[in-house]
Design goal:
By secondary structure, this protein is mainly alpha-helical. It is built from two helices and no strands. The two termini are 18 Å apart.
């Protein structure tokens, strides 16, 4: 995920603002899903999901 973020940052100056926003929101959603899956795996049902 970190590598993808670095690539996105490096190419941001070549992207349109709308495309950059779309890519960033997609990455954010993926990160949220991973955090929530890890939370479920840790069996911590009291943890607030994003």
């Amino acid at each position: 995920m970190g590598n993808n973020l670095n690539q996105l940052t490096k190419t941001a100056k070549f992207m349109s603002v709308k495309r950059l926003e779309k890519e960033g929101l997609l990455m954010l959603e993926n990160i949220k899903n991973i955090i929530n899956k890890l939370s479920d795996d840790w069996k911590n049902s009291k943890r607030k999901k994003f």
